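Exercise 3.2. Students should predict the tertiary structure of the chain below and write it as structure tokens, then compare their answer with the key that follows.

Predict this chain's 3D structure.
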Amino acid sequence: MFLPLLAGLGLSASSGMNAYLPLIIIAMVDRIRDGALLSGGYEFISSIPAVIVLLVLITIELVADKSPAYRANDVLQSIVRPAAGALAFMASASNTDFNPVAALLIGLVAAGGVHATKSAFRLRFPPKLRAVFVPAFSVAEDLYAAIMATVALVVPIVVPVLLLPAAGIAIWTVSRRPDHGPAVTVPDPTPASNSTVAQP
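Answer key:
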């Protein structure tokens, strides 16, 4: 019960950074283990058609998340990433006695929380530097997600250690306000009066 929980947390948290990467890793591990990972109707994730679809989707995601349209992508992923996190948790626990409803709810919350942190964290960058920082951090997030998802399936006991950086970033993000750039000063439209008051 404890290890499936840790594995599901690692997979759903990594889904909050990249929706499709954990599912691809789940599919690869299931195929390597000759179908020993997935059961209960989740075997389709490791099928050839599903893997092809996931590869196409992750290619789009990798490009969109590093492009100037990353904000629009984050809005779209507000639905996709939590759903992917729930699916990843439920699939990884499908061969255990972990409650599927609990897996669904925990996966949604974990992936949704990480996604919200990721989106808010980007707004803390100075606007003029986001064109450089956002793609760089997106690459780091992809690597982090890949490592966490792999560790979650191989040695889930290590997942809490890997979640510490994400927790630290979440605390830092909440403690700071978004950087919207320098404030714009609006001039007073009322002209200054140069008239003098007549003395009696």
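Discussion points: Residues 130-154 form the longest helix (25 residues). The helical segments are 2-15, 21-32, 48-64, 70-92, 100-122, 130-154, 159-175.
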